[in-house]
């Protein structure tokens, strides 16, 4: 009501074990329902080396630390597994949120649930990718060079055990996304792209169960997807220069919302994309953009074909929306399968 500060605590301290470098001390902040009912603030430091997380709960007018997790205190040590984002949700069905930090998952009590040991992923997606498998999966797009075929892979969200991988060498995978845009293939399509730093510009497209579907020009952009029209396929963006996809910034161009390799649904989206989220509650998503001196909200004028609970009622979807301002932009996904 007043904006008056209630409580304050220190951020996790910088660590000099490996040199006091920004890359080793990157900050992240998150929120999780660690006891199943109370929101806890998560303060995280580290991505590429040591990682630490403090969990804080507001009790009365005091912030109390529930636990601290230190990846160097694990056995084996968990180091360099962090991503640029975190996402929180209940993966083991105990009613409490776990924390996906990248290639590792923390349990609600501040202990390690699992680690793949695969290193730093630029993009992580926690959702039900394959509706034929029980539970959720995690799609990982990994920066480190991988000879073992696991540079683009899916693991089980509960256990971290491998489900499938791309099966060939990858160099420096810098982007990725999961979305159902092709009704021919059951489940969410999984796609990723190399980012030149490793010497490759290849793009990969795979089915929900890991079958190759396309490469390079057949692969859509990984950035900014939205449920916009009345069906359950997700739509993407196209710039006025006719290049597929769009980054988080339109760079002065207006954007169109399109079916993948199909019709244009909406034209004239202007500004830098700040957020994609179901703000109005009809399960389709709004596009929030910024222009000099204004913020715009674009909403669909296409009627839905059915009624669905607003996506913001889903905890994992809400976690993606809450964490959009941190790290690299990722379009939100719900915990359940949403596709044709």
Quaternary state of this entry equals single chain
Number of helices: 1
Q: Give the C-alpha Rg.
A: 20 Å
Query: Can you give the mean pLDDT?
Result: 91
Describe the protein.
- The N and C termini lie far apart (44 Å).
- This protein folds into 3 domains: 1-115, no CATH class; 117-222, no CATH class; 224-312, no CATH class.
- Strands 1-2-3-4 form a 4-stranded antiparallel sheet, with no helix packed on it. Strands 5-6-7-8 form a 4-stranded antiparallel sheet.
- It is built from 1 helix and 22 strands.
- With 340 residues, the protein is an all-beta fold.
- Strand 1 and strand 2 form a beta hairpin.
- The protein has one helix at residues 315-322, and strands at residues 27-33, 39-45, 52-59, 62-70, 82-89, 98-102, 104-106, 112-115, 121-127, 137-142, 152-156, 162-165, 173-179, 189-194, 203-206, 212-215, 236-239, 255-258, 264-269, 272-277, 286-291, 294-298.
- The protein is globular.
- Helix content is 2%, strand content 37%.
Describe the structure concisely:
With 340 residues, the protein is mostly beta strands. It is 2% helix and 37% strand. It folds into three domains: 1-115, no CATH class; 117-222, no CATH class; 224-312, no CATH class.
């Amino acid at each position: 009501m007043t904006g008056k500060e209630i409580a304050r605590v220190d951020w996790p301290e910088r660590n000099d074990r490996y040199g006091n470098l920004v890359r080793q001390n990157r900050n992240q902040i998150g929120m999780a329902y660690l006891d199943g009912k109370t929101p806890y603030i998560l303060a995280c430091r580290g991505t590429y080396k040591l990682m630490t997380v403090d969990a804080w709960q507001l009790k009365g007018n005091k912030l109390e630390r529930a636990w601290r997790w230190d990846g160097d205190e694990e056995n084996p040590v968990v180091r360099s597994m962090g991503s640029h984002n975190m996402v929180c949700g209940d993966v083991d069905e105990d009613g409490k949120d776990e924390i996906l930090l990248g290639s590792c998952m923390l349990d609600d009590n501040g202990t390690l649930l699992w680690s793949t040991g695969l290193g730093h992923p630029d993009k992580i997606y926690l959702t039900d990718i394959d509706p034929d498998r029980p539970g959720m999966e995690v799609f990982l797009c990994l920066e480190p060079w991988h000879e073992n075929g696991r540079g683009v892979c899916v693991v089980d969200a509960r256990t971290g055990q491998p489900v499938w991988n791309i099966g060939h060498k990858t160099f420096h995978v810098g982007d990725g996304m999961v979305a159902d845009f092709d009704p021919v293939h059951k489940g969410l399509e999984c796609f990723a792209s190399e980012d030149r730093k490793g010497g490759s510009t290849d793009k990969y497209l795979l089915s929900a169960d890991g079958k190759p579907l396309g490469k390079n020009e057949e692969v859509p952009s990984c950035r900014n997807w939205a449920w916009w029209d009345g069906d359950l396929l997700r739509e993407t963006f196209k710039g006025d220069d006719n290049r597929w996809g769009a980054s988080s910034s339109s760079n002065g161009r207006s954007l169109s919302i399109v079916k993948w390799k199909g019709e244009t649904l909406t034209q004239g989206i202007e500004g830098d994309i700040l957020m994609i989220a179901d703000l109005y509650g009809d399960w389709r998503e709004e596009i929030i953009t910024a222009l000099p001196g204004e913020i715009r909200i674009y909403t669909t004028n296409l009627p839905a074909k059915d009624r669905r609970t607003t996506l913001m009622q889903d905890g994992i979807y809400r976690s993606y929306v809450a964490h959009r301002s941190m790290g690299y932009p990722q379009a939100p996904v719900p915990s359940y399968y949403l596709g044709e």
